[in-house]
Specification:
single chain; mainly alpha
Length: 153
């Protein structure tokens, strides 16, 4: 069970084998997840995103305990499981393929910059600290991504 948790927490193993930027590599499964969730009706999309957030908390908390490091860089479940939040309601099927590259870069940039109050949320204990900073960062990214999408529609 521990190995499965670490596999999921590390972005399906990508965060463990990445030569650099494990969070970025580990967030790549979120792209597929985002395509799947944006195909859903908006209320269901929001519900799925909420469930993913709630599932990410214990997964990230368990991985943090296993690695023994607060918000270890190899933990990427907070990135890939929450990535769909940054695309809620954006009609990906109606946009060019490269728009996903732009959205991905926006999410990674905001996550790295950690605007207020993201950085402070990392101090929360366990999985909550790992996940909530990314949730807020993804909500910021959602606003930026919607502005980008609006300019392309």
């Amino acid at each position: 069970m521990r190995r499965l948790c670490l596999f999921v927490a590390s972005g399906l193993g990508l965060g463990l084998v990445a030569p650099f930027a494990p969070g970025t590599f580990g967030s790549l499964p979120g792209v597929a997840l985002a395509y799947l969730t944006t195909a859903l009706a908006l209320p269901l999309q929001i519900a799925v995103c909420a469930v993913l957030v709630l599932l990410a908390v214990p997964i990230c908390g368990a991985a943090e305990r296993a690695f023994g490091i607060k918000d270890d860089g190899r933990i990427a479940a907070d990135e890939w499981m929450l990535y769909p939040v940054a695309l809620i309601g954006i009609p990906l099927a109606s946009l060019p393929w490269w728009s996903m590259v732009v959205y991905f870069c926006v999410v990674r940039a905001v996550d790295i910059l950690k605007p207020w109050p993201c950085r402070g949320l990392q101090a929360l204990p366990g999985g909550w600290g790992v996940v909530l900073d990314d949730l807020v960062a993804n909500l910021y990214s959602l606003a930026v991504n919607w502005m980008i999408a609006a300019s392309m529609l």
